[in-house]
Amino acid sequence: MTYRPEIDGLRAVAVLPVILFHAGVSQISGGYVGVDVFFVISGFLITGILARELEAGQFSIVGFYERRARRILPALFLVLAISSCLAFFIMLPYEFAAFGRGILAVIFFASNVLFWRESGYFAASSELNPLLHTWSLAVAEQFYILFPLFLWACWRWFRPGIVPLLILTFLVSLALAELLSLRMPSANFYLLPTRAWELLAGSLAALYLMKRSAPNGWLAEGISVIGLVAIIVPMFVFDEATPFPSAWAMVPVFGSVAIILAASPATWVGRLLGVSPLVGVGLISYSAYLWHQPLFAFARLVDVDGHPSQGVMLGLAVLALILAWLTWRFVERPFRGKNGFSRRGIFMLSGFGALSLAGFGLVAVLSSGFPQRYPEGQRDWITTGTREYGEYVFGSYRNVVGADFSEERPKLMIVGDSFSQDFYNIVLSAGAFENYTISAIDVPAVCQLHYAQSASFVTENTAPENRRLCENRSLKATQVAKMHQADVVVFSARWQPWAADLFAESLEAMELTADVYVVGSKSFQPNRRFVLDFESSNFETARVKPEDSVVDSTRILSSSLPNSMFVDTMKIMCGNGCPIFTENGSLISYDGLHLTPEGAAYMGDLVFGAPPLSAFIQGTP
């Protein structure tokens, strides 16, 4: 294929917004669309190479995978090796074990599947995962495993049907992406079936240019300008609330296709994308993409608040480009050339690198993240992962969500988000409400607890990406009707000040006749890494300042609700700051919000040992 510098310039337009978006530059709220541009470029280049080889009778599946190994693996293995060293010294055991799982998944090009399966409310923040960005490599490589064989088979036995079959697959994949964008957004984001259409858009562009000439003159100018606008505008207009990938992704995808078809040195866009700085960044774009996420993730891990300053993140973005150039110059280029490494040599080195990294990942997993790096007394709570703790929080609670009341026993209704799950575990630990039959109503924290309030006011306080969810999951009249069956109703939530300010009115609208208790929010040290800094010999002094939003919501609820109704957890627990450990040194909260089993028992003793809930510790009001 003739070298097209504008394609490398397009790579630069794709990678720079991705890096800035992951660096937290809010102005580029849709910078993630750069990945979709990459998919189109990849589909175009790979299909063009394969189709020309098939046309010339020179296709070799072994040769194809040799090129992929030369292109992808050397830089990838370098970044994985250095990231593994940093992870060993920076990450806590539960994080390091998760990193080991990630290494294994990356080696087998299945990290997108792993990250999809490990996503969810109780999952660790994706920003802290140094390998998160490899999901897109996995999608591309899964495509490359299937597509060459498909194209070869069609070329040999069903050549006239290639384009119709690709168009049909494209349409099915796009329709699936639109369907799942709201129903299963995580699977939609990570998995190949809903991303394949983006790669196939590039494939169809390549096949088009094999048979037809590219547009020229004013038509080429217009198409390429529209294409560039279609890529750039979404980077500033789209945000995390935009369902993606979905029909919205057609804008940058077709913009990329337009540039591939029409941009050339004869057009204004082609000359713009062909300028030396953009071409230079495009040449190192793969390595830049590999380096940026580990740098950002490790910086967030070692920062006290998990949010390094914008200046630090931009500095790391520049460092990613520097490391990318060094990697391109001394790793990518030598391995791509066949003079230094034969086919046999590249496969042997690839196999050795893959086995070495996979072995490292396996050891990290089997050793539970090498907890021996830390004192024995700390190992329990830095070895158990966030998901495992999260399973404890939700585990027993799932049995009472929507459960029917027993008519023979008094009835307790628990209403709220994951903090109500904590409250249920507190009840179990304290042995309170023993004679009660319990049911629960689960309302996501993003929706907050409110009832019969102005739709416009609630909408303006709910993030755009959560509004559709909250239309279905906010409190409804049927749920309030079930509360009327209860003898005791407990509301427990991670209160936002705006919802706390409305809640007295919401209670009045509910007209409940049961005994009502409202449990305030709680707040602890959010980062287990910095819990290690506290002097373990004096657990009583290990305290932290509660979050401002918790203080504000507590003040609002305390002033608007009677003392006989409001359970002031700040007053009960956090007189001189909120504790981090129980009296015997067990961790109270694993993420600053939710309770460990020991934390639930500790908080149960305090909450049910003080008014207004102390009357229920014996199981009777």
- Rg from alpha-carbon coordinates: 28 Å
Q: What percent of residues adopt helix (DSSP H or I)?
A: 55-70%
Strand order of the largest sheet: 2-1-3-4-6
Structural class, by secondary structure, is mainly alpha
Give the CA-based shape. elongated
Give me the oligomer status: single chain
Which regions have little confidence, pLDDT < 50, spanning 5+ residues? Answer: none
Main sheet, how many strands, which sense, barrel?
5 strands, parallel
Mean pLDDT: 92
Beta-strand content estimate: under 5%
Spatial separation of the terminal alpha carbons:
81 Å
Number of helices: 27
Count of extended strands = 7
Short account of what is shown:
This protein is mostly helical.
Q: Could you please describe the fold and organization of this structure?
A:
60% of the residues lie in helices and 5% in strands. The protein is elongated, with a radius of gyration of 28 Å. The chain has 27 helices and seven strands. Helix 23 (497-510) links the parallel strand 3 (488-492) and strand 4 (515-519). It has helices spanning 5-22, 33-56, 61-90, 93-107, 111-117, 134-157, 162-183, 185-190, 196-211, 217-237, 250-262, 268-273, 276-283, 285-302, 310-336, 343-366, 379-383, 386-395, 418-430, 455-460, 467-473, 477-483, 497-510, 528-531, 548-560, 569-573, 597-607, and strands at residues 411-416, 437-442, 488-492, 515-519, 543-544, 566-567, 578-579. It starts with a helix and ends in a 14-residue tail after the last helix. The strands form two sheets. A five-stranded parallel β-sheet has the order 2-1-3-4-6. By secondary structure, the chain is mostly helical.
